[in-house]
Amino acid sequence: MLANPAVDEPIMRWLTGFRLDDFLHGHTARVLVAMPEFVRADLLGDPAFPLADYEPVPGLTQTVLVRMTRAGGAGRSVVLKRTLRRRPEPFVRYVIAHEFAHAYLRNAGRWPGDDPEHAADALAAEWGFPRP
């Protein structure tokens, strides 16, 4: 467990449904705990939201399933490379936070004209995971 059972238990239960690599599971839990509650609730409360990881293999492709929303559009997802295991912890958590920020923002900026990459970096930094 992390530190606050009232927050941690729902996160751990949600994460268990995705069968992430153990290394990524732990770092993802830490990132989720650090997010504002309203962001975490938006992500964990989205029944169409998949979270996955994969081991890149040269010459092979990876299929990423995206569920449809109730409105009939494509849902959002986060897919993490297991190669993050070979990176420093601050970078690993930054990447996870950055990808969750994209999901939260639905791959858009925070306002019209805001660059989605800068917006995801800004949110990740606000959550305590600045770009190393």
Overview of this structure, please?
The chain is mainly alpha-helical. The protein is 46% helix and 6% strand. A two-stranded parallel sheet has the order 1-2. The chain starts with a helix and ends in a 6-residue tail after the last helix. The model has no long low-confidence stretch (mean pLDDT 89).
Anisotropy-based shape: globular
What's the SSE pattern? Answer: HHHEEHH
Number of helices: 5
Class based on secondary structure composition and strand pairing? mainly alpha
Question: Quick one: how many beta strands?
Answer: 2
First-residue to last-residue Cα separation:
26 Å
List keywords for this structure.
single chain; 132 residues; mainly alpha; two-stranded parallel ribbon; 5 helices
Structure described in brief:
This protein is mostly helical. It has helices at 5-16, 22-34, 37-44, 89-105, 116-126; strands at 51-54, 78-81.
Helices, strands, pairings?
Layout: H1 5-16, H2 22-34, H3 37-44, E1 51-54, E2 78-81, H4 89-105, H5 116-126
Helix pairs in contact: 1-2, 2-4, 4-5
